[in-house]
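Protein in question kept in full:
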Amino acid sequence: MGPRADRPLRLLSFLAPSLPEGLFQLVGERIAAATRRPVEIDFETSVSGPTLETDPFASGRADLAFVCGPSWAVLRGGGAPVAFIPAAPVFDDPRNGGRPVYFSDVIVPAGHPSRRFEDLRGGRWVYNDRESLSGWHRMIERLAAAGLGSPERFYSRVFASGAHVRSIEVVASGEADVSAVDSNALILARRRAPTLSERLRVIESWGPTPIQPLLASAALDERTRGAVLSALLTLDRDAATRRDLARYGVLRFAPADPGSYERLIAAP
């Protein structure tokens, strides 16, 4: 049985604080208007996405959730009660080409001697969390593709920061030598602190990758899911909403293909 039509919809985001809470609050407001139901917004800041053991749909914590890319395949492959909402944000990074994609930007302190990834052997790697595609899995894939071994053998230290924004701060301060971070989180961080560009630099970018999707409980009725989809795909039609989205670097929401997320490989 799905959630009662008279109770609030629960929207959960695993993507803050690296992507601003205000973006998800804005989306929640528009979903509330479209569905004519109040929306309660919650944030999971300890990890980028759920596993089968922490599935927020099975536990009733969420009706809708913004998650890191591999979560769709992980939950669906494990038989979790999950559905895909085929709309995703398009950020204003020119590299995105108007598509709902993003990159994993490999950052080092501005004065660091490394010029390419292979130069980082023996360095200190900081990552946000191990469910993160851009912050963890892409690095594992890069090491494997170059025959460089495991993180524990390649780096002198591997440690978690808890969020892309924190990884950015740790690298910029010199506490770590390198990290891979969500490209949109990096752009927004640089806009908030323009001097950040003087303190770090990007040595590689991996991608593009389908951007973090919005999932729904399979128990959520199709009419409500359809209203959510319509609300997202028409957000940019309203001038005031476009201005609000622009504050978070978002141009609009565009159609998203669930198949492209099923092809994402989650490294161990």
